[in-house]
Amino acid sequence: MVAMNPVIELDSLSLRFGKLEALKSLSGAFSGRAIGLLGPNGAGKTTLIHTLLGFYKPSAGSGRIFGKDILQQDKAARALIGYMPERDSFIAGMTAVRFVRLMAEISGLPPAEALERTHEALYYVGLGEARYRKLESYSLGMKQLAKLAQALVHGPKLLFLDEPTNGLDPPARERMIQLIKDIRDTGEVNVVLSSHLLRDVEECCEEVMILKQGELVYYRNLEQERKANRKFLELKIHGNREHFIESARQLGCECALHGKRSIKIILPPERTIRELYAIASEQNVQIRHLDYKKDSLQDIFLKAMETPMGVDHGSL
Amino acid sequence: MAVYERTYKRYKGALTPQWTRFLVLPRYAYEEVAKSKLFTIFFVLCLLPPVIQAGRIYLYHNAAKIFSAVPAAAEFFSQFMSINAEFFGIVMAMQSGLAFIVALFIGPGLVSKDLANNGLPLYLSRPISRTEYVLGKFAVLGILLSVITWIPGLFLYALQSIYAGWGWAFQNTRFAASILIGSAAWICTISLLALAVSAWVRWRPVAGFVMFMVFLGGGFFGLMINALFRTDWGSMINLGVVIGRIWEGLLGLRVTENLPLWAAWVSLALFCFGCVQMLNRKIRAYEVVS
Question: Exposed, middle or buried by CB within 10 Å (0-12, 13-18, 19+), for A94?
Fold first, then answer.
């Protein structure tokens, strides 16, 4: 985790709805340009965003957005945020221009600047030609784009995108993903993308947080992983696994059991695969499968869902 | 972010002061309301009674000059049309009734439009609090109803003061204070009622009907309670009687209702408190179902 200039800081943040513990003592400092918030339905992704926006008061702990406390400096924190909700959200009877301009003015932009940026934002998301149409006449994809425009119009520093590709057909999804990447790459705004679609997060995000039953179970910088091109060996062996792992560790390898028969091993640069074969021969262990692998986000996600609670910061 | 550049840029210009941002809501609401010609005509007509009353004040003070040739007419205007507590009572009762109709016209759509399509999270994710949101919506009615209640009321008081002299004005400051306090109480009540109904009933025509029924039904049940239990306390749920009693108390008019003045104020306060509670329950980004 990066400790300098964090975008979001969580300090034992908990939230309770009656008996239900929706968020369980979340802690950490997150500073990626694009942070993916993953988890199955009901994991607490949207609840976490809503808590950071001040919709729900934490039952314990606190959170900060660019150093602004979400409870003590809630307005100052929200002034830095643009929010694109998951559900259909608009005001009926308004044209896109009027709607986005209203949102810009409420965020504090003077009327003239608000109007100028409204046109720019609507053109930017691709609704330029349809900007004088009433919102209720928009298709689902257009409504998603209008929501993105209102989230961008006041020029926030942090953008919360809650399931932005929900209900979009493949071309519209592609377009939305491209927009998110484009926004991210400007370097002017940090993006938090909440989704249960692994592909969306994998395509757009540098860091990933995985939530499970309100608990943060995984956090890793995907970008660093990609740059390091961290590969591992997946071995399936027949024989005494424990002894084999012990010997591999003595060589300086990082080892982890995976499934009933598989072992994941990261070889140090100075070691070769031949040495693993040597150990296997010494211990009368058969190596029946050996392959180079790289954790996909799907592997990471499934592993996080299977393992017991507790934050994994990227160990094998 | 210029259109031709097609890229995202942060806004780094000046921002409006935080305390003025809730006023964006009434500005946008008025632009919507002004699109209805029927409403615009009605609203202008609401100012007609005070204009007529202003003419009456003028006639009262200038009858001798205008009707110098017809002494009987001059005597009629100067004796039977005195500008006193009854005069202001009638004016304010009429304007209060019109204010209720205006609230009936605008109120039901104020919050329901935002709630109907989950618009509230969009407002509340910005640097505006729930209180400021309600204040903004309240200001829509508050400002508009002020234009047809206490502002013309005080205008008539000022006009009378100009003609009758500042001595009259000082002797009758109670009228000015009553106009302000009574109008504020009425505006507060019907605005909160309109917002509360709008927050709970999302279908506009039904919301208007419910609001009307609160006024009418309350009156009906109040009368029923009074008749059944041979009491006057039933009038506490009759908004018409309550505000009438408050006007009587404020202006020092002859009391026509047996409801004590304090009970009328308590009833109004409880009514407003109930409306605020209803709003507090509904004005949330997302409802939590426990």
Answer: buried
Strand order in the sheet with A215-221: A81-84, A158-162, A190-195, A34-38, A207-212, A215-221
Cα A99 to Cα A149: distance, rounded to the nearest angstrom: 10
Instruction: List all residues of chain B from 116 to 145 with a beta carbon under 8 Å from chain A.
Output: 116-119, 121-129
pLDDT value of position A257: 78
Tell me whether A81 touches chain B (CB under 8 Å): yes
Question: Per-residue pLDDT tens for A53-62?
Answer: 999 999 999 9
Domains annotated on chain A, with CATH: 8-225 (3.40.50.300), 231-293 (3.30.70.980)
Q: For chain B, how far is it from start to end, CA to CA, in angstroms?
A: 44
Closest among A233, A236, A81, A52 to A151, alpha carbons compared: A81
- Chain A contact for B285, CB < 8 A? yes
Q: Has the ipTM of the complex gone over 0.90?
A: no
Report the distance separating Cα B238 and Cα B222, nearest Å: 5
Evaluate if residue B82 carries a pLDDT over 90: no
Least confident range from B25-34, B44-53, B80-89, B133-142: namely: B80-89
